[in-house]
Amino acid sequence: MLEFLRPEPLAVVAASKLDSSGHWMAVGYFAAKPNRVSLDLIAAASGSGSFKVSKVEEIDWVSRVQDDLRPVEAGKFWIRGSHVKGAVPAGLIPIEIDASQAFGTGHHGTTRGCLKVMCNMQARGMKPAQVCDLGCGTGVLAIAATKLWNCPVTACDNDPCAVAVASANLTKNNAERSVHLVNCDGFAAGEFRKSGPFDLAVANILSGPLLGLAPDFSANVRIGGTVILSGILESETYEVYCAYRHAGFSVSGRLEIEGWVTLELVRSG
Question: Dihedral of CA 9/10/11/17: which sign?
Fold first, then answer.
């Protein structure tokens, strides 16, 4: 009923309250102060409690988000937005990624997990010649792979917006010549058949899609090759493990960050 007020609200949000009352809460946002009498009439007509009116202070949301997105250290990488100035800590590899509509600024435990596992692989002397990144989001993992190993990477996402963001990030990080970017779902594009089989495949998505992709990973990763999977909750790990064991993989590493698990698997057959 708030939408019938004059002036009209800019937005109305309704959500169940986070308690056991079963009540719902409605919030309206207005450019000008709403009429108190009109609010009281709506409350009486709907049988709700009285409305509270308060002013929302002006906030520079860009600055607020930038303050929250401080640089992240993950393995050998120093991931920061373009708003962060200053020198990169000694011994770390810089990657510049701004917050956007695509996933992957390095702050989430799944992204950090993948980056750390990749760095652990490199420290053990592993040198993949062909890498793919499924569900690349911002492109951060594809960029990291080519910076670690100076190798060609095939990256894809099924969201055209993410592909556009990743393309801009590849250019920003001087990786556009090393990473071939495709808008497709899974291994559907012909580029994967041309570039594969892969020595390393990375997928930071969710457990549901990962379960369905197990046979495709087996078909596109060479025997002895490695798969890094993330986006897996701790409670989902065993199901994912079983699906990939059935597809010919064995677990060679496991890392948990903030309740999210990253699995390192080797194709054994």
Answer: negative
Q: How many Å apart are CA 176 and CA 198, to the nearest integer?
A: 19
Spatial CA neighbour of 106 closest among 121, 116, 92, 120 = 116
Query: Could you tell me whether strands 221-233 and 249-257 are parallel, antiparallel, or unpaired per DSSP bridges?
Result: unpaired
Task: Give the whole-angstrom CA distance, residue 232 versus residue 92.
Answer: 27
DSSP-derived secondary structure letter, 91: T
C-alpha distances in Å from residue 265, one per residue of 31, 62, 115, 137, 216: 54, 39, 15, 22, 14
Look up the pTM and report it.
Answer: 0.76
Report CA 222 to chain centroid distance, whole Å: 26
Between CA 262 and CA 118 the distance in angstroms is 11
Residue with tokens 């989902």: 236
Show the tokens assigned to 189. 């594009």
And the tokens for 35? Answer: 């009429």
Phi, psi of 140 (to 5 degrees): -60, -40
User: Could you list the pLDDT tens digit for every one of the 269 residues in the chain?
Assistant: 666 667 676 666 666 554 556 667 777 777 777 777 777 777 777 777 777 777 766 655 445 555 556 888 999 999 998 888 888 889 999 999 987 777 778 789 999 999 999 999 999 999 999 999 999 999 999 999 999 999 999 999 999 999 999 999 999 999 999 999 999 998 988 888 888 899 999 999 999 999 999 999 999 999 999 999 999 999 999 999 999 999 999 999 999 999 999 999 999 97
Residue with tokens 């990080």: 173
